[in-house]
Amino acid sequence: MRLQNTSNIDTQIIRNIIRFVKPSSVSNFDIWVKKSKYAYYGRAYTEGCNFHSPNPFVSYVVVRIGNPTFPLKIGGFKAYIKHYVNDTTELLVSIIAHELYHLKQAKLHERFSEKEADKYAIKKLEQYRLNPHSLITSD
């Protein structure tokens, strides 16, 4: 896993979040966390993407974080499950877990399901809330 961080969020915290939320079957991916004019946005490219690498064997996740107002409602429209996050760390847990779950779905050749990805993200968010200091410590 390679991480590119062009946001103002501490890189070690992002690495800890990735390690915490990554499904065990997911590997060989790159992730870019960057600033955004939007509150948040996530996208999983399961077969690489041209603006990153033409290598189809490296999955790629892009996470954009702006300056949202908390608490922030996530989902609740179309195929997504409504849930709330209270700060930037919770937002990252939710988005990164959701997008990495899509990489798991692709690896297992499952149909992509936003609801299943949200269920996984909400589960990881609940686990994080039980011990929020676990992601702040450095390794």
Determine the mean pLDDT: 91
Helix content: 25-40%
E-strand count:
6
| Distance separating the two termini | 16 Å
* Largest sheet: spatial strand order: 1-2-4-3
Model description:
The chain is built from three helices and six strands; from the N terminus they run βαβββββαα. Helix content is 35%, strand content 22%. α1 (11-21) crosses α2 and α2 packs across α3. By secondary structure, it is an alpha/beta fold.
Structure keywords:
single chain; 139 residues; alpha/beta; four-stranded mixed β-sheet; two-stranded antiparallel ribbon; globular
Summarize the structure.
With 139 residues, this protein is an alpha/beta fold. It is built from three helices and six strands, in the order E-H-E-E-E-E-E-H-H.
List the helices and strands and how they pair.
Blueprint: E1 2-6, H1 11-21, E2 29-35, E3 40-45, E4 59-65, E5 72-74, E6 83-85, H2 88-107, H3 114-130
